[in-house]
User: What shape does this take?
Amino acid sequence: MGTTVATNALLERKGERVALVITKGFRDLLIIGNQARPHLFDLSVQKLDRLYETVIEVDERVTVEGFSEDPEPSPIDVDADPDLVHGLTGEPLRVLKKPNYEEVRESLQSLWDLGYRSLAVALMHSFTFPEHELEIGKIAREMGFKVALSSQLQPMIKLVPRAQSATADAYLSPIIALYLDSFRKGFKGELQGADANKLLLSQSDGGLTPFTDFTGLRAILSGPAGGVVGYARTCYDAIEGTPVLGFDMGGTSTDVSRYGGSLEHVFESTTAEVTIQRAHPGPACYGNGGPLTITDANCFLGRILPDYFPRPLDLEKVKKDFLKLTDVVNEEKHGDDRLTPEQVAMGFIQVANATMTRPIRTLSEGRGFETSSHNLACFGGAGGQHATAIARDLGIRRVLIHQLSSILSAYGMALADVVVEKQEPEAVAYSSDATSRLNARFDSLSSQAEDSLKKQGFLPHRIEHELFLNMRYKGADTALMISKPEDGDFGKAFVARHHREFGFTQPRDILVDDIRVRSVGRAMDMHLSSPFAQLDSLTKAPYVDPAKAKSIRKIYFEKEGWVDSHVYHIADLPKGCKVKGPAVAIDATQTIILDPASEATVLDEHLVIELLDTEKVKVGTDEIDPIQLSVFGHRFMSVAEQMGQTLQKTSISTNIKERLDYSCAVFSATGGLVANAPHIPGHLGSMSTAISYQANLYKKGELKPGDVILSNHPCAGGTHLPDLTVITPVFDDEENPQEILFFVANRGHHADIGGIAAGSMPPNSTELWQEGAAIESFKMVKEGVFDEDGLVYHLYDVPGSYPGCSGTRTLRDNIADLKASIAANNRGIHLISSLVKEYSWPVVQFYMEAIQKNAEESVRELLKGFSKRFRGHPLSAVDHMDDGTPLALKITINPTDGSAKFDFTGTGPEAFNNLNTPPAIMYSGIIYCLRCMISSDIPLNQGCLTPIEVYCPPNTLLSPSLKAATVGSNVETSQRVVDLIFKAFRAAAASQGTCNNLTFGYGGRDERGNVTKGFGYYETIAGGSGAGADWEGQSGVHTHITNTRMTDPETFEKRYPVLLREFSIRNGSGGRGRKRGGDGCVRDIELRRPMQVSILSERRVNAPYGMAGGGEGERGVNLWIRKDPFDGSVRTISLGGRATTPMGTGDRIVVMTPGGGGYGKDPEELDEVEVDGEFRMHEKFVRNPHLFRAQGSVSAREAMGTQN
Assistant: This one.
């Protein structure tokens, strides 16, 4: 049986009241999450609601002894210290404090008295040391609570996702239990005792489990999982061997998946995110006042037959709505050619198809599989209407549709097996010496799972065990779940898969993070007929007699227009015959469209559709087609997304791998931004300057295929030096191999590139050379040959030659991450070359320029609106850095053409610190702010800056000399520039205005030339966002120019010699007003060995401003809790906004980040210039001249998935 009770309860927020029990200091951890905001350009920063209502902090603490980044680890004798224990992984742990269980019981009693009955428990490092959690769970159950323990639900490192899983389970399991209790009462004996195994429920992993073991967490998405099992069993043949891409298009959502012989389980899910008809009020054809949807487009174009639909459809309403929409489109589009209503409706479908194929490409191509080498299995109620179009877009020639495809999820549940999974954490390097330990643990887990299946009545010969190791390279974060291969060599299988997915291997140890057993109980032998065997057995399949058609209907196709199409009832079609398109095959629950260039073979249980012609409609370049504009927008963004996916997976460092401090983008041959993935706004807006610089630096012919450029110098479009930009030209392979068509590039923050301080973020630098390697232009790869010696020279030798400076302290990681950057660019080159081959260069170039023009027109409309709102007056603002340096801006808008001049005259001179800001950052701030104020979801690209003229006097803070220190520019001044621009537009109160840059580490070359092995760590810390006229500020989130993630607390302590004592919301720090500003954070870190610690921050003197009478946010505070090494006494020392100092063991750095400003009118403080109205995020202020736009992204959806 399957159920949507859990999914519906989660979506509708109708679960059980939940209390979260968590380690002291982390009460707000799930509010902060990974501190990233899900949507880059949404000033209201809307995050998902939390599922729990209240929190109890338990005063207990366990941490890891030793740290993985230690370059010279010492052996740890666990037996010599009573506070040391071995975790489940075998790693040594230190129990710093055991819980006082009586106090825990009292706290739980208070919860019980308040009516709470469900608890989620998540303690630090409980995945490897669950004792404290287990005891708390025991106490809670004795009191009558329903309890979800994170260590039992998901015994894997990372507290945030584990706590989220426990919270979701506690929220949903009681609802599931009530539903099942009610269901069981309809049976004699209520399915008690031996009958309990007769009621099996589908889980999100595709397996079945008795209702007694069913939980809320495993119930989520169990329906789509049933569909995966369904097509895996019916549309894949191990002998034939072609892998299958699953396309599940239901009434209100779309899911994509892949099957190649085994089920692969992931911990984050991504869907195709297309709304087909909306649950309520439904599509326009339902007659309930709903908007036009994909269902309406299919209906209008004859792809849905009203006579066979289960409810009456209002086709006349749909026609009227499409006629009105067509008039709007034609009024706003340029050119003489007018679109017909049919073309507009077809545009709906084309854009929907483009949106859905993007995650399919990411799912397959992102893992090293070409989409064209697959079959496509379509199912769900709407899948058959889009099957041939989706396949054609992906280059797939064969589509399989099961006769039960519309209910394949339910059928898949009937085909599923009973599954018991057992998993435990591990921490061992894979080797022959570790084999006996791993085999013993496999045997133990298999025995446990087998015992569970035997109790359900399965005989031993009906039980199969699937063995997995979750493996990764040492120093990497991305683990791969490896199934035991036939030869039993997990290491060999890991290396092969890593090479397939990422294109390279590493000369590093392979670590095992988790050991997993999936035991399957097979109740019966399933002998399902293979569609491929049936196809092979057909000698010559005759075409069906057209006389068997129920009717002939006109259907609109992209190439042919309206075409007479035969309508067949599937049950009337003889087995073994062929149906030639155009045609429609229908039954009671599905409609399958065959386009004119396809034909279907009717088998016992399938329709197998072959695409006879995979050529697409030729795209013209006479004028912009708004439909193709959106399609190309999706394709360009898909390139950048897959580049980012490659970079994240193949990199080594925490900054890129886990904090996601990187960006990838596609640029024109002159350096203009074309498309980007939603990464770091500060990178995206400034990278075009770096690309333009290199494009102009090299004469034609000096850059050759296989060349890769490395640059980070501010004079070359760089920002601060740790951000290394890797640039690769894309050449015309077909016509002119010397002609550059595009550039692909990525920029990532490296943990260390040398200089006077570990982490290369010195708060006290005053000259550029103090901040590390400064590279104007270096061919890191020359015609395919990697120049490692040259790289060592630039990153280590040169920066180490300056007085008091060291070369990079993380050279190995630098080289590994730069190789990952090269791999990411190579991925982009491959995808762009495929795009050019598919459409031709003139077409691709035409729509590249059209996308930029579209953005330009949107910005012009935005500025015209502001000119009208401000009654033609210039917009101006002044703010001050904490050192007193003024930032000044005057914006003069031309109301006729929507152009504007941003004049920063009045900004203070170059500063004797590191807040000096290269001009590229100004452009980055401007393009970001403009994009935020456009309500339409347009792509961010160079067109946004086309109407903008920027002036800043030379030798000022925002246009400094080439030797000025700049390390704080990209993380501090950039935030203040953004606040300044929003202040001028009166769009929002100030956000925290800083990134709160914290670095620590040790090692490198000292003044005597001695080299000590060490490491560097860098993080930025969230704060409060500013409020606006129609939104409250968000607490504990990164704002504006940055959007990096925070390292999970457990990973943080495992890798580095620190103890995270607190990470919480700084309550009350947001500004007051009609709309409150968001609160900042408190981050308290204790050092477990001597290190150099640096803090670089702003808003410690000048508070974040309020807007329209709203109150200021609280200023930030940086404290050094200094422990005397002799008597143990403690002093609290204020570090100010910028400081670097050696700290000892037991010392603490406490960072209290600023809150955001509040918003609220105060009649006594009205500005001199009267303004018509307020800026509101959700009003339709800008009307984009094109209806169809690229929108959404896989990366953004994955980021959303990690929010609480």
In short: The first strand starts at residue 18 and ends at 23.
